[in-house]
């Protein structure tokens, strides 16, 4: 009898440990997928407290989140806060992004635990995959960090909102942007879209707005240290007619700079021309390191930079001076020759990711019927199908690659 009891106990114990979650019906957040059937992607179901609308970027709303597979939830119900995010994508697009702040650190889809997450709408991108392709490219080029992400279908307050990219928030952490956490150690974003003057430092020569993401509340003396370094760096760029690579490497990490340049140049990223979402790190006594990459939904032929031919990013800001130097040009050419295989491989990656999203994309473009539309400034081409959007992207990548090969 005792032996039988122990066997039953062990069975129940190990069943609890290894079986899928056994949720009660009361543990579910409601999900109605009758209009948008299961597509193989995980579904994120979010409900705000009292069904309060999420329509601003400043104020968080209390909410609950649960992850679903086809029929059942895959997770417990999490407590969190949610608000809108983005600049022009928030003000100009019907489908906009969100910031999520969990009460406790959580690991989502095997990504490292964190409280802060981002939901990217990719509304400007009819392929839905340009950000994902770029994050993977940076990873393949051995960037120290590229944001991890997972495609999901999103429901907010029982309304289907389409395919989103659940992504890590760019921040200083051991498994993200790994720099020393001290007062004179900075994660900085160049972004002309910030308007709050207390968030911005203007460097002297190039008038680039520098938004400090870390530390959270830098002291005035800390800001001066960063500003002095940036001014000295830009003075050096402006005063030298020819750069010694050894001298230049006292200011910038050449490998990180050239890798970041090629990602932005290959994609002809409008924002990457020192306009928006250009990140770098620097701490006292070190070199400036470019990255991580972010915000490529209007790259690769999107928005107004549709032509895959011609140089673009090298004509702006610091690049405009660096590319006048023959030694720097040699380094840039060497990097392309050593890594061009990773760029051409993106064409095959389009097939992989678009196939993964094929059914979910049908739901997304049923909810947001923009494939044929050119009404938005970000939609410069009308396409008849999701497949055609991806074929156009593949053709653009191939032409871009060949043009660089012929003109480098």
Question: Can you describe what's shown?
Answer:
- The chain has 408 residues and is α+β, with helices and mostly antiparallel strands.
- The chain is built from ten helices and twelve strands.
- The chain has a seven-stranded mixed beta barrel with strand order 1-2-3-4-5-7-6. The protein has a five-stranded antiparallel sheet with strand order 9-10-8-11-12.
- A hairpin with a 7-residue loop joins strand 4 (97-106) and strand 5 (114-120).
- Helix 6 packs across helix 8 (326-344) and helix 9 runs antiparallel to helix 10 (386-407).
- The longest helix has 22 residues, at 346-367.
Topology diagram in text:
Blueprint: H1 2-18, E1 43-48, E2 61-68, E3 78-85, H2 88-92, E4 97-106, E5 114-120, H3 130-140, E6 149-156, E7 159-168, E8 185-190, E9 200-202, E10 209-214, H4 220-239, H5 245-248, H6 254-267, E11 278-283, E12 289-290, H7 317-322, H8 326-344, H9 346-367, H10 386-407
Helix pairs in contact: 6-8, 9-10
């Amino acid at each position: 009898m005792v032996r039988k009891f122990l066997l039953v106990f062990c069975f129940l114990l190990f069943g609890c440990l290894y079986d899928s979650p056994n949720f009660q019906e009361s543990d579910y957040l409601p999900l109605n997928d009758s209009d948008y059937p299961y597509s193989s992607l995980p579904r994120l179901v979010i409900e705000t407290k009292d069904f309060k609308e999420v329509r601003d970027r400043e104020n968080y709303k209390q909410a609950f989140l649960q992850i679903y597979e086809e029929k059942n939830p895959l997770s417990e119900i999490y407590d969190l806060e949610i608000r809108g995010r983005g600049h022009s994508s928030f003000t100009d697009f019907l489908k906009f992004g969100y910031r999520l702040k969990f009460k406790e650190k959580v690991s989502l889809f095997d990504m490292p635990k964190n409280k802060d997450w981002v939901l990217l709408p990719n509304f400007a991108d009819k392929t839905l995959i340009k950000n994902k392709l770029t994050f993977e490219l940076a990873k393949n080029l051995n960037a120290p960090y590229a944001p991890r992400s997972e495609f999901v279908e999103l429901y907010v307050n029982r309304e289907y909102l389409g395919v989103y990219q659940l992504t890590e928030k760019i921040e200083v952490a051991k498994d993200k942007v790994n720099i020393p956490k001290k007062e004179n150690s900075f994660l900085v974003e160049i972004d002309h879209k910030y308007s709050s003057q207390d968030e911005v430092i203007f460097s002297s020569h190039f008038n680039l707005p520098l938004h400090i993401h870390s530390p959270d509340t830098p002291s005035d003396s800390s800001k001066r240290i960063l500003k002095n370094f940036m001014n000295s760096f830009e003075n050096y760029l402006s005063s030298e007619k020819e750069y010694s690579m050894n001298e230049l490497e006292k200011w910038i990490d050449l490998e990180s700079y050239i890798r970041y340049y090629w990602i932005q140049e290959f994609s002809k990223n409008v924002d990457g021309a020192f306009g928006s979402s250009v990140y770098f790190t620097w701490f006292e006594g070190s070199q400036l390191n470019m990255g991580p990459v972010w915000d490529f939904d209007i790259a690769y032929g999107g928005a107004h930079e549709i032509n895959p031919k011609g140089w673009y990013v090298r004509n702006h800001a610091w690049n405009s001076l660096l590319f006048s130097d023959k030694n720097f040009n040699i380094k840039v050419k060497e990097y392309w020759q050593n890594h061009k295989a990773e760029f051409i491989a993106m064409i095959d990656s389009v097939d992989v990711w678009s196939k993964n999203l094929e059914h979910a994309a049908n739901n997304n473009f049923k909810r947001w019927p923009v494939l044929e539309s050119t009404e938005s400034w970000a939609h410069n081409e009308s396409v008849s199908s999701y497949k055609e959007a991806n074929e156009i992207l593949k053709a653009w990548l191939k032409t871009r690659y060949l043009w660089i090969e012929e003109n480098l």
